[in-house]
Amino acid sequence: MLRFSLLLIVTLSAWVNGAQAAECPQLLQGELQKLRSQERIDLCATFAGKPLVVVNTASFCGFTPQFKGLEALYQRYKDQGLQVLGVPSDDFRQEADSSEETAKVCYVNYGVTFPMSETQRVSGANAVPLFKELAAQSQAPRWNFSKYVVDAQGKVVASFPSSVTPDDPALLAAVEQAIASQR
User: So which residues are the catalytic ones?
Assistant: First the structure.
C-alpha cells in the first residue's frame, strides 16, 4: 500500500508539474538569480498572466538614468498588474564588475523596487533563454536598455531601442495594450 501511495504521489506530482509547464509561455520558462540574493526568480511563477516590461541594463551606460523612468513606469502601472524585470548585462562592456556595485547603482542611486537579476548574457548564442525567446519574437538587444513589452500571454507586443525613454508615448501605449491583455 505504501509503494502504491508513493507511486501515486510521484505520478500526480509529475502530472501537475507537466500541466504547469504546458500553461507557462515559452518566454517565461526558466529562472534567473536575483541580484544580491540567494533567491531565484521563477519567471513563470512570478510573471505568467501579467503584463511585463523586460529591460537589459548596465550600470555605466549613458542610458543608465533611465532607471528613474523605469521605476516611475513601474509605480504608475503596478496596481494595474504591470511587472518590470531588469536584467543587467555586460554584453556591451558597461556593467559593473561586482553584484554589490550593480545593486548600489540600481537600489541606492536610482531607488529601483522592481525585480533585478544578476548579470546575464542577453545577446548571441550564449544569451539566457529569456533573451533568446525575446529575440525570436522580436529582435536581440543591440545595446543596453533595450525594452520589451510582453502581454499576459507571454507574447512580445512591442520592443524599443535604448533611445526610447520609459515615458515615451509609444512605449506607454504598448504597456497599456499589454495591461489590457490580462482582462
Answer: 61
In this structure, is residue 10 part of a structural domain?
Answer: no
pLDDT tens sequence across 52-73: 999 999 999 999 999 999 999 9
d(CA 38, CA 133): 25
Q: Is residue 14 part of a domain?
A: no
What element of type H or E holds 135?
Answer: helix 129-137
| Domain containing residue 42 | 26-180
Instruction: Take residue 178 and report the three cell numbers written for it.
Output: 499589454
Kindly state whether residue 147 falls inside one of the protein's structural domains.
Answer: yes
Q: What is the pTM of this model?
A: 0.88
Sign of the CA dihedral with 25 first, then 26, 30, and 34 last: negative
Is residue 6 in some structural domain? Answer: no
Measured CA to CA, the distance from residue 135 to residue 141 in angstroms comes to 8
Q: What is the domain count for the chain?
A: 1
